[in-house]
Amino acid sequence: MAAVDELFGSAGAGARPKTGPAYALLALGLAVSVLGLVCTTAPGGLLVLGAWLLVEREGDRVDSGFLPETAAPEVARARRWTAAGLLVVLALFALQGLLLCSTNVYGQLLSAAVATWQQPAP
Global pTM? Predict the structure, then answer.
């Protein structure tokens, strides 16, 4: 019933862009990407891509006329944030590739983890 009320603007409440879930996915994806430098940044990148897809869908809703033109600035702001998030994730992918290929950071990290794991209990 809520979708019908939103469609026809029941009680003066018109359709509004749903950017909240996109911002939540963006924040979670960036956090997972940064923490993922220890292992892999790919899951965080997928979450950020999900946020981008949600924002693009909202942009399509503005373009189709389902959302009012007054929602366009909010959707444009969300697009800018998700585009910036995608650039951050790409930079993190590049940094992880650099750390993996040209330095021995991951080898040292793995060696330290294995040495800690194999120590006998006191």
Answer: 0.76
